[in-house]
Design a protein that fits this description.
The protein is an alpha/beta fold and 285 residues long. It has six helices and 13 strands. A six-stranded mixed β-sheet has the order 6-5-4-1-12-13. The protein is globular.
Length: 285
């Protein structure tokens, strides 16, 4: 059996926002008061995508090989900005949903490790305390301080000096024409900081938060450096309609594979569904 240091595949998901009526949710949820919540037709569609991602896409993309899972933040929706789109404002219920969503993926025999990154405090509590609770319950790999969820992770893949840096946040934009700017800056700033202090820069920079997939590459001495942003598992919430790019775009649902190949080559592959959510019906008059 391969040890974790011999694994060549990393699966990355993020922004599951469990507990939101517009995000990933099992078919039926038991509420604290004894009632139940049945997922909506559009959540049913999301659930079908999640099952396809887990049961079909991951085994095919990894060629059936072992992998490590990284959840890159915002595992639950929380109680934020006076919003009313949550299934329940009881955070225990939201955490239970997250655990039910993630457990089947973590129980896959090919999943050999799980890291959890803390996301936005408005969603996952001050200092990411609710994210920590979910990660601890699901036995995420702990950091040197004993925390199950962390703000960032520098992962060395397959003992080949391939470094991947994970953290949740990245700059956003209201225009698709400028989606590359903040992502490119993350990569360049990591090179600048590494050069300043004589450290090895990451080969791959992974960010989330935007709910939109994006990737950019530049040539380096090792071949190329990669900066990417993951898609999400949440549809358009009322806050999305305040943003120009959010108003005009469809939700992007899915996840990423980062793979170490031969001769220190790095490969990425992503699965993204574009879904027309509840606000986008065509109406004829």
């Amino acid at each position: 059996m391969k040890t974790q240091n011999q694994i060549t595949n990393v699966i990355v998901i993020s922004d599951t926002h469990c507990g939101c009526k517009l995000a990933l949710c099992p078919p039926s949820v038991t509420l604290d008061e004894g009632g139940t919540y049945e997922h909506s037709p559009v959540q049913k569609k999301l659930w079908e995508m999640w099952r396809q991602f887990r049961e079909e896409w991951i085994p095919e993309a990894t060629k059936g090989e072992d992998f490590v899972l990284v959840h890159n933040g915002d595992v639950i929706d929380g109680v934020h900005h006076n919003s009313t789109t949550q299934i329940s404002h009881n955070l225990t219920t939201q955490r239970n949903i997250a655990e039910e969503v993630l457990s089947p993926l973590l129980k896959m025999p090919q999943c050999k490790g799980y890291y959890h990154i803390r996301g936005t405090e408005a969603h996952v509590g001050k200092s990411g305390q609710d994210e920590e609770a979910v990660a601890r319950s699901l036995n995420a790999i702990k950091d040197k301080n004993g925390n199950s969820a962390r703000w960032e992770l520098l992962l060395s893949l397959n003992k080949r000096d391939i470094l991947i840096h994970f953290t949740h946040h990245v700059g956003t934009t209201s225009s698709a024409s400028y989606e590359s700017t903040a992502v490119y800056k993350e990569l360049i700033e990591s090179y600048n900081e590494a050069g300043r202090w004589g450290r090895t820069p990451p080969d791959v920079v992974v960010r989330s938060h935007r709910h939109r997939q994006f990737e950019t590459r530049i040539a380096t001495a090792k071949g190329y450096g990669i900066a990417l942003v993951t898609p999400s598992w949440q549809l358009k919430t009322p806050f999305t309609y305040r943003i120009g790019l959010g108003r005009s775009s469809s939700p992007q649902i899915g996840g990423y594979l980062i793979r170490s190949g031969s001769e220190d080559h790095i490969y990425t592959r992503f699965k993204v569904w574009s879904i027309l959510d509840r606000g986008g019906e065509k109406v004829e008059i």
